[in-house]
Amino acid sequence: MEANQGALWRPTEREQRAYTYLLSILDPHKEGTIEGQAAVPFFQKSGLPDAVLGGIWQLADTDSKGHLTTQEFNVAMKLISLSQANRPVMLSSLNEDVGLPELRGISWQQVLSSPSTVSLSGTHGRRDSNTSSTGWTSIMGTAAASQVSLSEAVVSLKEKQQYTQIFEKSGPVDGAISGAAARTLFLKTKLTNEQLGRVWMLADPHSEGKLRLPGFIVAMYFIRRIMENRNIELPRTCPASLWRSAGGDPKVLSPLGSMSQTSLTSMSTPDLADTQWDVTKEEWQRYEQFFNSLDTQRVGYLSGDVPVNFFLKSKLPESLLSKVWDLADIKRSGKLSKEEFAVAMHLINARLLGGQIPDKLPATLVPPSMRRAAISSSSMQNLSPTLRPVSARDRVQLADNLKRSTSYAAGRSVPTSMSRTSTVRSTAMSPPLESDELTALQTQLRQMEDISRGLQTQRTETANQLAQASTRKQELEGRLVALQSSHDVEQRVNQELKERLKSEESKVAALQAQVSDANKRLSVVSAQHAQLEQDVHRVQTQQAALAQRLQQAQADERQMHNEIGALEQRKQMLEQKLVETQNQITQLHKSNQ
User: What is the rounded distance in angstroms from the CA atom of residue 127 to the CA atom of residue 97?
Assistant: First the structure.
């Protein structure tokens, strides 16, 4: 059923343009198939884990044939977009509205703004050659097999320059970075401790517990190869060609396992599953959701007002929340990682349930992956107070001391009561002071009072500045709330306008259809009109001819009437003559008789 969904799904016009552009890169000859060796590094540009990409490949490659058709490639790209948007990676989700896949080196704004995008008309072909590659894992292996053997490896100049820049940014001391600094950097790659340990053994042949530039380049080289292929086999010793290309002396290279136990320990990380932690699994899942919702930039830590405002929702006093922050900020970095945030939330919830905030973070509450950092932090507490960094809690305590004290010595506070007691005791137990000594003490006392007044003035100014900062903060928070509200309103208005635009576009489309029908009917009527005009002209011509004939007939009729009148007159004359003639005949007869 899902396979049919993938075959029947069709991308939007925008998605089709984007996928067509990507296909023009992977399939320049328009063969209609995407081979696994080309797809693996291309898919990895998405930044998704190999396990996720493997699942996407299996969903897209419906027949497990080891390559993708054009339609299957489109499905894979849409599944990558769904995964990057934290949506369900399923074929049934293909119709969800998400952005285009984010791929390193691809700027969709530039691609889609161009006048035309490369168009592919290739068929959905398949490979003719026989292959045994039926999945992502085997494809990864094939891609890795095409690389140069690690026993003959060398680091390219470009890659070496990249690693050198990273090394310089890591703050090397005497030409080397410490094991702790390297460990922090390498753990960001998400490789296992075993893999990182093997890499360290290859990169630190002298078992120094730190990495110089050649060793760092070698380590980064192997880490990158492992990230490209998790199943890669590392050599037992660092290849001389690789060490030499990294700028090191290949004369002394340690075999696998010759590293000192100290270096191994510096690279190891306690396993969270095997170490007790007071934050339960259920708590961790809940706190992780909170953290992810607050970490909108996905930087991996929270700082500034974001966590503070979130903690203030607990309604606990700010002094307690300050104490919670100091306990949770194990690294003393001024920001909270996900595990440190979970510690803070655990302490807050424990206080809300009636518990107490401890003065010192219990060992079982320190995240297992940070317990070495906690040990280093606790050892820092043993340093001289002048050297140890001042935490937020220390600053609160110092402020309280400033409020309680009324006189200060140079660099430390001396309560007035204590000063007076000492003066009385010294007077009772020692001989009378000389006038010079008394003058010196009075001078010292005046100096102390001047210092006290100066510090009090400074405290007042600081309090005023703090009040101004608090007022400014409240103003900014008010503006932020107003802007957020305005943003929400604008968003709703934009959404309504989009819906109205969509409705108006539908109406326009309907009107356009009606106009098209009206144009068709108008064409028919126009033809009929032309025909009628022709008929009218013909009838008018016939009418003119008939009118002319009628006029002629009327003229003939008038002439006939005139002729008939003339004949009538002649008839009457003839009749009169006849009557006269008859009368004459009658008279003749009479006369003859």
Answer: 33
What token pair was written down for 577? 């003559």
Task: Give the SS3 label for residue 54.
Answer: helix
Contacts (Cβ under 8 Å, ≥6 apart) of 29: none
Q: How confident is the model at residue 4 (pLDDT cuts 50, 70, 90)?
A: low
Residue 504 tokens read as 């108006």
Dihedral of CA atoms 231, 237, 239, 242 in degrees, nearest 10, equals 80
Residue-wise DSSP of 362-412: -GGGS-GGGHHHHHHHHHHTTS-TTTSPP-HHHHHHHHHHHHH-S-EETTE
pLDDT at 537 over 90: yes
Question: Does the pTM of the predicted model rise above 0.70?
Answer: no
What is the Cα–Cα distance from 297 to 104, expressed in whole angstroms? 18
Q: For the segment 183-195, what is each residue's pLDDT rounded down to a tens digit?
A: 888 888 778 877 8
Strand 176-178 relative to strand 210-212, pairing? antiparallel
For the chain, counts of helices (H) and of strands (E):
21, 8
Stretch (H or E) spanning 149: none
Q: Rounded CA gap, 70 and 125, in Å? A: 8
Phi, psi of 112 (to 5 degrees): -80, -15
- In this prediction, residue 29 has a pLDDT band, given cuts at 50, 70 and 90, of confident
More confident residue, 109 or 12: 12
54's tokens: 């493997």
Question: How many whole angstroms separate alpha carbon 403 and alpha carbon 420?
Answer: 19
Q: Determine the average pLDDT of the residues in 53-57.
A: 82
pLDDT per residue as tens digits for the range 371-429: 654 444 443 333 333 223 334 444 444 334 333 333 333 333 333 333 333 333 333 33
Decide: helix, strand or coil at residue 216: helix
Close Cβ partners of 71 (under 8 Å, ≥ 6 residues apart):
6, 7, 124
Cα-based distances in Å from 370 to 190, 200, 236, 489, 591: 16, 20, 30, 44, 181
User: What does the pLDDT average to over 209-221?
Assistant: 90
Helices (H), 45-156: 50-60, 70-84, 108-113, 136-145
pLDDT for the residue numbered 448: 57
Instruction: For residue 207, give the 3-state DSSP assignment.
Output: coil
Residue with tokens 């023009």: 24
Q: What are phi and psi of 434, to 5 degrees?
A: -70, 155
Q: Would you say 36 and 67 are in contact if contact means Cβ atoms under 8 Å apart?
A: yes
Residue 341: Cβ within 10 Å count: 23
Distances (CA, A) of 432 to 39, 427, 443: 95, 7, 18
The single-letter DSSP state of residue 236 is: S
139-143, 368-372, 476-480: least confidently modelled range? 139-143
pLDDT of residue 345: 94
Place of tokens 């896949």: 101
Q: How far is CA 201 from CA 218, 236, 267, in A?
A: 11, 9, 10
Here the contacts of 257-261 (C-beta below 8 Å, separation 24 or greater) are 257/201, 258/201, 258/205, 258/207, 259/200, 259/201, 259/204, 259/207, 260/207, 260/209
Between CA 361 and CA 382 the distance in angstroms is: 16
Q: What is the gyration radius of the CA atoms in the chain, in angstroms?
A: 51
